[in-house]
Design a protein that fits this description.
By secondary structure, the chain is an alpha/beta fold. The protein is built from 17 helices and 22 strands. The strands form 4 sheets. A 9-stranded mixed beta sheet has the order 5-4-6-7-3-8-9-10-11, with helices on both faces. Strands 16-15-17-18-14-19-20-21-22 form a 9-stranded mixed beta sheet, sandwiched between helices. A hairpin with a 2-residue loop joins strand 8 (186-195) and strand 9 (198-208). The longest helix has 15 residues, at 105-119. The termini are far apart. Residues 238-247 and 473-486 have low confidence and may be disordered.
């Protein structure tokens, strides 16, 4: 019994795109790059072309009524992938404008095939194919119909063993009407979406014969390096784990001995913890103690922060850890962050330094910095974030700010507390005429833990967790907090 045939794939040279395509573009395939004007179709085509050509693989790029070759080249030269030495050696540009004006599909087809036979390319790009079809169908007396022209073009290019790309400005509804979409082997669709003042670019693989691509819309950006695609993170369904006495034996110390005791010996390795508290309660300082303790144990750490003055909050601990090369800092300060881009940055940093500890400070700032599209369903974004980070094996501590309403007890502003393995809560209380901070362990999945409400202080000697808070004043009382301590 013979094995199933495998299609040879070609690397596109576009970061992230091959992963979405399931390995690359199938060789000798007939593809469409479609989308509205200004979405990056021509840039994508040029980036792929300059990346795929070589001494024995040449490319032929046809332009039509859209942009003449000299104009396209003028703008493509700003990109780092552009290689002037390849032009006319391995890449040839040909303008079909004159033959398209003849309004005869047969002449257009003959011109394309004549150039293909002469140059013998491995890759053919036609930009814009939509301009060609519009220019000819404006004069219906042509002997060859659009459907027959498209079919003949596809058959001819395939018979020449050419990998081809037709670029065009199409509307989404045309996918079900235009015959070109029926015979195409692959369809890459580019779009841009406006959310408030933000512009988000998306790429979708609508069709790719013979390959299992990653479905859905994937964010991408255009820079001087060309397109960078950020594959949409699709975490595997959660696996139900049964915790027993032998499970999660390794515990990571938090850097505060009293908190370790409250957790029953520390935070189990590979767990995700949510540290919830109001502004100024000491969340960031406690998170830095977690990282500092890891450094003392020889464990590298990563902190993703939005704090502008993190060194002031953490004293000299931050600079010392960076100098010792025990801490990698990822600063996320810009607005309109792309979720998958930042998740990719995080996972790469974790893997590159083999980090065992990660601090995410904070989820509240992350939500505000994200592009509006991702803010709309932050609950889903958090699910993807936590499951993707857990897959790396790193132990995660995430801080989040919760407005303290004193007589109400909440564990997460997003309703996602069930996603994490542990929750530590900080609150303000009035005791003996003073405003104090208390800390308690709300949750530690699969393990026994303290439920005491303990005083939490930051002084000259660092963090101190004191006695059980028995004398709770009028700012915090009633059945809610009483039930939490039982």
């Amino acid at each position: 019994m013979s094995e199933n045939a495998r299609l040879n794939t070609l690397n596109t040279g576009v970061q992230g795109l091959d992963q979405i395509l399931g390995g690359g573009i199938p060789e000798f395939s007939f593809n469409i790059i479609g989308g509205a004007p200004g979405t990056g179709k021509t840039t994508l085509a040029h980036q792929m072309m300059f990346s795929m050509v070589g001494p024995h693989k040449r490319a032929l790029y046809f332009s039509a009524l859209g942009e003449p070759p000299i104009k396209m080249l003028r703008y493509q030269q700003i990109f780092s992938f552009f290689d002037e030495a390849q032009v006319e050696q391995t890449i040839r540009f040909h303008n079909l404008g004159d033959v398209v004006q003849s309004a005869d599909f047969e002449k257009v087809l003959a011109e394309i095939l004549r150039e293909v036979k002469s140059f013998q390319p491995a890759f053919v790009f036609i930009d814009s194919f939509r301009s060609i079809t519009r220019g000819v169908t404006a004069h219906p007396e042509g002997p060859l119909s659009l459907q027959n022209f498209t079919l003949q073009l596809g058959l001819q290019l395939t018979s020449w063993q050419v990998t081809s790309f037709l670029i065009g400005e199409y509307e989404p509804g045309e996918q079900h009407q235009n015959p070109i979409f029926t015979i195409a082997d692959g369809i890459l669709w580019l779009s841009h979406h406006v959310h408030g003042d933000s512009l988000i670019r998306k790429l979708q693989v609508i069709k790719l014969r013979g390959h299992e691509q990653i479905a859905g819309l994937h964010s991408f950006q255009i820079s001087t390096a060309g397109l960078t695609v950020y594959p949409r993170a699709l975490p595997l369904p959660p696996v139900v784990q049964i915790h027993d006495d032998t499970a999660s034996k390794e515990r990571l110390h938090m850097g505060v001995a009293e908190l370790d005791l409250m957790l029953g010996g520390g935070l189990p390795a590979g767990y995700s913890m949510l540290l919830v508290g109001p502004s100024g309660s000491g969340k960031t300082r406690l998170a830095m103690e977690f990282l500092a303790e890891g450094a003392r144990c020889g464990e590298h750490g990563v902190i993703a922060t939005f704090e502008k003055r993190l060194s002031q909050t953490c004293g000299g601990d931050l600079d010392a850890l960076i100098e010792q090369k025990m801490l990698t800092v990822l600063t996320m300060r810009s607005l309109d962050l792309l979720f998958d881009q930042e998740l990719q940055r995080l996972t790469k940093a974790i893997i590159s330094c083999q980090a065992k500890r990660l601090v995410f400070d904070s989820l509240s700032c992350f939500e505000l910095a994200l592009a509006p599209e991702f803010r709309e369903d932050f609950r889903e974004a958090l699910y993807r974030l936590i499951t993707e980070l857990n897959d790396t094996g790193v132990t995660v501590l995430m801080t989040t700010e919760m407005e303290d309403r004193y007589n109400e007890l909440q564990f997460s502003p997003y309703g996602n507390a069930f996603l994490v393995d542990a929750i530590v809560l900080q609150r303000y209380v009035e005791m003996a005429g003073q405003l104090n901070t208390i800390i308690t362990v709300v949750k530690l999945r699969g393990h026994a833990h303290s439920r005491d409400l303990r005083l939490f202080e930051i002084g000259a000697q660092g963090i101190r967790i004191g006695q059980t808070a028995l004398d709770i004043g009028p700012l915090l009382r009633g059945p809610n907090i009483a039930s939490a301590s039982q």
